[in-house]
Amino acid sequence: HLTLWLIESVCFQMQEEECVNGDGEDLDAFLANLSKVSNSRERASQLFQWLINPIPAKSFFRETWEKKPILVQRKNPDYYKGLFSTAEFDRILRQEDVQYGVNLDVTSYTNGTRETHNPPGRALPFTVWDFYESGCSLRMLNPQAFSSTVWNVLSILQEQFGSMAGANVYLTPPGTQGFAPHYDDIEAFVVQLEGKKHWRVYNPRTEDEVLPVVSSPNFEQADIGKPILEVVLEAGDLLYFPRGFIHQGDCLPDAHSLHVTISSYQKNSWGDLLQKVVPVALEIAMEEDVEFRQGLPLDYLTYMGVQNSDKDDPRRTKFFSQIECLMKKLTNYAPVDAAVDQKARDFLHDCLPPMLTPEESGSSVRGAPARWERGQVMDAGAHITTQTRVRVLRLSVFPRLCSDGEAVHLYYTTDNSRVYHKEELKSFEIKEQHTDAIEFLIHSYPKFVTVGSFPCDSAEDRIALAELLFQRGIIHTAEPL
Fold first, then answer.
1. Phi, psi of 5, deg, nearest 5
2. What domain of life is recorded for the organism (predicted)?
3. What three-state secondary structure class fits 71?
4. Contact status, residue 198 vs residue 256, Cβ threshold 8 Å
């Protein structure tokens, strides 16, 4: 039977005269007001609440996140207006260097067969729109590279999740389907922007199954049974489903569909952390504990292994007991904090750079007034003093101190690219005597602190550190220099 208890459906009726986000603002105005929120954590929280309204964020993370799909039907086609549009899609094709397979996929799913139709090279409007007219779906893989609004939204949301936030845009012609039933390894928020789309969500779990987390296998329709949720999303609606839930979407004959899937939490599980912990823990254990270096039994191949797994042999029981003992001891050698730092570095490499607010830009290195004017350099050499008040630019910049045993490096995201991993992870070496001051800055956020309050040995040290961090775009000042 259908496990309908897994589904919570929220119908949010809005009057025609009501506004996009419920308080009189369209998305541009909402983001402009959001930029005035000083604390970037609060900014991320408010944006996420806008995304899932009217579901309270606290109850969402308590009751729904990673657990079950949820549907929000708003009856307000303008709720997400301004996030992205087919007109923006067309502008990007005309003005940007969109490459097939890198930025754009052309796909179809007919008679149970999924096909990708990407030619080589740049995706130009003449060919792309011909594919669309022929019934193919268009998937833009990284709209944040071309759309400042999508970039802004994702760069804020990544702080809400503590994990990279990504997006794909899907444009589907009427009466077609672009993808086979599949599941993904991300938490997915399907935001319907234009038209409408018919969705079916299936639960692959039974009481004896583990939620799958492998990326995007396709399924035959006969293999997945009946949907636990079937709905037509219209513009302004939202559908969330956790990783592992099989899903498929197809267009009705009378309307095209444009939606953006906002995703996060890829490779952010306990298992992913343990993949970093266990190998290093084992190396340490083998160096420090003789029991890990003791030889295996001389005859273990005669009673262990798959071919011997059905044997009722006491030696097998003893073997498993020793494995269990060693596994328990392994936790004593687990470098958990170091592994978390590795995860943090991965996150920082994945992250989008922050899209700065006017206030952040004007008080950071990116808005410094130095320039060439009237044949000379103007407003150069503005100086930081011990009285200058500074703070970390925002927490999504997420400066992270990590040590490799020989040196301490500070990792940051302000110089990242809007294209995933186009640039190497950014870091620079920090003097050991400056680490306390870096931690002081991070933990002081969102308060501004004077450079003179840095826990350094001298005023010169404090100013030198502040200048370095300012030049790297990691801190900004309370007032423009």
1. -65, -15
2. Eukaryota
3. strand
4. no
